[in-house]
Amino acid sequence: MVALALVTSLLWGLADFxxxxxxxxxxxxxxxxxxxxxxxxxxxxxxxxxxxxxxxxGRLWFAVAAGAIGPLAMLLFYRALALGPMGVVSPLAAxxxxxxxxxxxxxxxxxxxxxxxxxxxxxxxxxxxxxxxLGGAVSRRTxxxxxxxxxxxxxxxxxxxxxSTTVTGLFLALFVQRLCNVVTGGAALWVAARRGTPVxxxxxxxxxxxxxxxxxxxxxADVAANGTYALAARIGPTTxxxxxxxxxxxxxxxxARGVLRERLLxxxxxxxxxxxxxxxxxxxx
Length: 285
Fold this sequence. Notes:
Elements: H1 2-22, H2 28-50, H3 60-83, H4 86-93, H5 98-106, H6 113-129, H7 140-160, H8 167-194, H9 206-210, H10 212-235, H11 238-245, H12 248-260, H13 266-284
């Protein structure tokens, strides 16, 4: 469970970094729809190859709901990433963990004291890893987008964990989720185009076509992260799995440091250390 949750954080961190970069060159809604459409195409092949259609049951409605909420959350998040520093937006969005943790606690899950301590330490590390630079550095608009994204992401986490009980069923659930993402996001894209909002870069389609490999990576990394998270939540305590999976802002911050040369503050380095300490406590608990 621990390994799956940590892989989730790695994949989400890389997907967020890639998505944030793309939205600096392409409209955010276009990034969401195209990346999810490419991922849906790959998942469709997997579903046919594995015969996952036979796993269809009432749980798929959880995937439908997750797919309807997901595009809005991603759109808000990508807009926040495009407007503000990745190292601030990403850890603030990690407050999404409050939703599935709250659901798990209501359903009767009770972590041990060591795990509670690990959750607190790891979450504090995640926030610090982004670099607490809120004093005038981040606009209210960016914070509003981030808060909306966090709520949406939390709902998606809670829903997708309930969408299947088997691995092949998970393939089908992820496929249905992505189809709903594409339908919902595509409808929003059509409305935006009708209203005259640019859905392509000023240079035309060429930048979009050139970005297709990157868009495919973002979509597939996000899908894979959803899958590993769902498996981790099924194997071990959801409260532990979701906190470990929420370490992705550390990955995003490190990627921004390595690629964009964003300065890694002392607080960020301390946050990464706290996140590691919290991870060890969660794993040992």
